[in-house]
Amino acid sequence: MDDTESTTTSADENTGNLLDNPTRDTLAEGLLGFLKPTVDQLDDRVRATRISQLELKQQIESLNEELQNVRSALNDHPDLDPYVKKLISCKHKVTVVLNVLQASQDRLNEIRRVVNKEKRVRTAVLPEAAPQEPEQGTSAEDSFLLIDALEKDLEYLKAKNPVFCLEVGSGSGIVITALGMVLPQCFCISTDINRNACVMSKDTASYNKVVLDACNMDLACFFVDKMFDVVIFNPPYVVTESEECRRTDITASWAGGVKGREITDRLLDIIPKKLADDGVFYLLLVQENIPDEVVKIMSGYGYKCDIVIKRKVRNEQQLVLKFYN
């Protein structure tokens, strides 16, 4: 009994020693103190991770809602093709209108330029001291008709860039002066069988600052061949007796002889010799001169013909013909 009691007492005592062992408690507390910061940090990180996961979940859900909205918007977008086509059509219409307006503006500018030139030419006056001998031709209207024809054909003349220009039977010199004013680069020459008309032509050109050499001669007989790029003729075209065509006074300004064309036909024979190969010849006629015959004569020389202008003046049907190769 003593041994049993002694053994039992010893076991109880050891158990009590384990529970109340100060060394063990100190060691446990030390281990807990050493591990607690790490455990706390681990807890904080786990907590932060859970919070981040929650926020990420919320953002994913929000993004999913936005994607659903985008998908819905893409499926329900309006058809813009009709509006694009309307815009393109409007652009084309605006472009057409702008082109029309620009063309109209250019045309107005051209008309203004032509009017200013016409005004300048028609208001060209002769010096008071000039001899008052009528020009070789029937009236000033003839000269203005030729001026209108040259004005209408101005772009064609500029493109040819003529060097020598001749007016046969210049009279007062209004026509050759007008041509010299719009083609300042060319050298202008005029002829007239009436000496006073030559003086008047020279004065008219000088008054308007145009370089002109006026020659007192019959038609263009004494010039070298193939000299002139442009030849202009306002002939005496009134039907008269042939004898009247041989005079050199004022009668020469209107007497045309048979068919009013005797003087004209003489010049037609000269033109192929005096006109440059690429030259142009302007001729004023009336219906009584039978223009078709003139065209046929010049066609025989190899010239083509265009009617530049046609007008009724004082009950006369006048026209300006252009002959060229």
UniProtKB/TrEMBL annotation:
The keyword Flavoprotein does not apply. InterPro entries: DNA_methylase_N6_adenine_CS (IPR002052), Euk-Arch_PrmC-MTase (IPR052190), PrmC-related (IPR004557), SAM-dependent_MTases_sf (IPR029063), Small_mtfrase_dom (IPR007848), Snapin/Pallidin/Snn1 (IPR028119). It comes from the Eukaryota. Keywords: Coiled coil, Methyltransferase, Nucleus, S-adenosyl-L-methionine, Transferase. GO terms for molecular function: nucleic acid binding; protein-glutamine N-methyltransferase activity. The keyword Transferase applies. This is Methyltransferase HEMK2. Residues 46-77 form a coiled coil. Methyltransferase that can methylate proteins and, to a lower extent, arsenic. Catalytic subunit of a heterodimer with TRMT112, which monomethylates 'Lys-12' of histone H4 (H4K12me1), a modification present at the promoters of numerous genes encoding cell cycle regulators. Catalytic subunit of a heterodimer with TRMT112, which catalyzes N5-methylation of Glu residue of proteins with a Gly-Gln-Xaa-Xaa-Xaa-Arg motif. Methylates ETF1 on 'Gln-185'; ETF1 needs to be complexed to ERF3 in its GTP-bound form to be efficiently methylated. Residues 153-241 form the Methyltransferase small domain. GO terms for cellular component: eRF1 methyltransferase complex; nucleus. GO terms for biological process: methylation. It holds the Pfam family MTS. It is found in: Nucleus. Residues 1-23 are annotated as: Disordered. It catalyses: L-lysyl-[histone] + S-adenosyl-L-methionine = N(6)-methyl-L-lysyl-[histone] + S-adenosyl-L-homocysteine + H(+); methylarsonous acid + S-adenosyl-L-methionine = dimethylarsinate + S-adenosyl-L-homocysteine + 2 H(+). Heterodimer; heterodimerization with TRMT112 is required for S-adenosyl-L-methionine-binding. Belongs to the eukaryotic/archaeal PrmC-related family.
